[in-house]
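Archive entry. Fields below.
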Amino acid sequence: MTAQHERKAAAPGSGRESAVSPGPHAASPRRDKRREGLAWLGLLPFFLFVFAFMILPAASIFTGSFQDAEGHFTFRNIVNLFKPNILGSYLITVKVSATTAALGGVLGFLIAYAISLGGLPKPLRSFMSTFSGVASNFAGVPLAFAFIATLGRMGFLTVFIKTFFGFDLYEHGFSLYGFWGLSLTYTYFQIPLMILIILPALDGMRKEWREASENLGASAFQYWVRVGIPVLLPSLLAAFILLFGNAFGAYATAYALTGGIIDLVPILIGAQIRGNVLHDANLGYALALGMVVIMTASIVLYTWLQKISSKWVKA
Amino acid sequence: MKKRAGLSWLWFAIGIVYFFLPLVATFLFSLRGKKGVLSFVAYEHVFADPLFLKSFGFSLEMAILTVLVGLALIVPTAIWAHLKVPKARAVIEFFALLPFVIPPIILAFGLIRSYSSGPFSLVTSPVLLVAGYVIIAFPYIYRSVDAGLRAMDLRGLTEAAQSLGASWGTLLFRIVLPNLRTALLSAVFLTLAIVIGELTLAVLLAWPAFGPYMALMGRNLAYEPAALAILSFAMTWGAIALIQLLTRSGKDKEKGASLGSGAH
Amino acid sequence: MHKRLLFVLMIAAIMFTGCQKKAGVAGIPGGVTATTNMQALIDAAKKEGQLTVIALPHNWVNYGELIAGFQAKYGIKINELNPDGSSAEELEAIKANKDNKGPQAPDVIDVGLKFGPEAVASGLVTPYKVTTWDSIPDSVKDKDGYWYGDYYGALAFEVNTDIIKNVPRDWADLLKPEYKGKFALAGDPRISNQAFLTVLAASLANGGTVDNLTPGLEYFAKMNKAGNLVPLIAVTGTVASGETPITIEWDYNALANRDTLAGNPNVEVVIPATGVVAGVYIQAISAYAPHPNAARLWMEYLYSDEGQLLWLKGYGHPARFNDMASRGVIPADLAAKLPPSSAYANAVFPTLEQQTAAGKAVAENWDKIVGANIQKK
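PREDICTED_STRUCTURE:
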């Protein structure tokens, strides 16, 4: 099996592959279509489940975005989404999600590489992968508090640096309670998620490819640009969008850490649905609908990027 | 080769420092339960509470159920899609990202509204909770399995196996799944961690899970929540490590056919 | 023809019996006024077997003892939902569980004053006047019995005295440079009752009125600029760790926290000299309660002398305080544990309308006036 064959097989679905089956292929398009139709049937349990337990329940609540508190139909909630402060919230939520997806993606990739292909002893890999399993979901209040206990004004690290180096982080403008502090905290669960997602892809990288390229005189850099990244690109993109989505919907960590000073959309939703002051649940549902729209747009962008990258791989 | 190992140690070390500092800080704070001395009294309080192990046990049970249902649903679907209906993958991926933007509170209210009365009354059964958890975990499960499937030459393996006369069963259990081991384990770990810590669904569907228990403790206590955070981290890690161990000894015995993938 | 008639009759019969079930509960006379037959109520409640409550943390005005007491006295199990929930969540829970008779549907709610009329307008609560109805002050109850005040408290400073040696006594003190990075609100003012009423209280202390919150917002803008305001939500853990050694909470919560921490660290609770705001919470029975009789029995229990004194034990002033004091049923040692009544002399009780308007003002202007700088980081 040549490297080229691997790359072709690993490329995301371009739709040109036909169903694998022994025996002669049908010549007539109608039989192909029917075969394809039956093939979709195999996905039925999945789609039924998703419909029953996600689409239906969510839709029944999302209809609330088009209603007011008494249940009458209205577009007011959707119109309110375009107020500048709400648009600003969407923007900053996207910013935080993209930043932490990038940070988590890069650092997670480097660590995943280190433990899989980087020549480190085997036990370190299971240590890091099991640890990542737990850390990927260490979020919310415990995580916020852990960071407060580390880098807050009275945090263990802050005090340590002040005592031993005489350098007061907070006097010099650092604050855990802002965009970068929040991003740093989010990255704590983004990195492990990246590690777990990209490990299978890294496992699929053959040592032979690296050896072959070295034999042919290519440098590490050339290897990565010509072979490594192209092969990994689909998985990297997929991981990025997962990390993005992971941060996009996060609520508890942000609320516990910034007290709502940073206006992320999940916090706004919380303020409308559970908050005691404003409490316009229908606006909350509309805000959530807005998030679905943005996520859909991101997915479209991602699918397009996947298509382009697969062309690059084939080239 | 050597240079690469050096850099690898660097990244690994950075990772370790970044991950463990907050845990150390939390641990140190949890030892301040008694004034002036370092003591484990906060931990004693946690263990003395019968609800602690009960809620953790409940969540662990739910987690295992979610893993089983989730894998049973998604792995065959992903394999089928990769093999037979590649166009469907885009559709599945779209659905696999939706749970991120449906706030858990909306999912919970929706599930209650749809299944609290009529022919499908499920509110009194944990089925609804597990179903909700599967939906929440499904992006992570699908992404792991998908990454694993992309990394292996599924088509080539299938063709080769079938030309050698293998049945679908043999193909699935002795060829595809062993090659998906890393991906499956990732999916299991992620799901376990998600379900054990999950809060909103458990609260709104009124189940005595671990997430609500931790939130309750965190309301008015100072040192016990930190002890709880450390304990839950350790216990979840233990559960995951155990799974890793068990699957390893199982796999070593079975030399599944891995046609030159050499990935491990 | 006949088949269709039969069908219609069948439907009518089903609907009729369905209606019957809702109208009267087995044997209890009248839904609104208190039953004169306590025993019948107790029996009916016991038959229902369970009571579902929501958002009642055990150390919020000593609900722990009330719940345990009720269970012990009547043998009716109490199913506790979402102890961390906000008042808004309680209303949402009723709404979401309208058709659900399962354990996720709350029977009774305990919410902030301004949620009373909202609950009535949305048809979420059903009226009931307890036996001791007349001794509840008129100003804190709905005349038709849809909701009724249960306890109140005033906003107080909660100070970690292991870290703060010089305890602030009033709002102006909190602006002093010695408290740099030491104060945080106990909630997001756009979300939490406690937090936005804190802004209201600050406003009163700085020349504003209940209807004009700008001085309060400007006060916090000043505090933020001086670096005294930590943009974090203060909880017991952060007060204890010293990250937010000063915060402002309902006095009953602050006192309960002081007791829980038991000297590790030491906490002092101070009612500010000026700008004292008191808040009332109210009880109501859900219109969709799966266990309506248990709900009524719970109300009778809460508004009996026994129940009211348990609230007092949790440092909350029960609604029937004046009535009970005049009858001399309040034990002296219990009364002594509360802050001195002189501290409450100037307490302002914002009305519903004032609270709603104030809430809107804070929610809309908080970012503009206070949060503007912080977001940049």
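CURATOR_NOTE: The longest helix of chain B spans residues 50-83.
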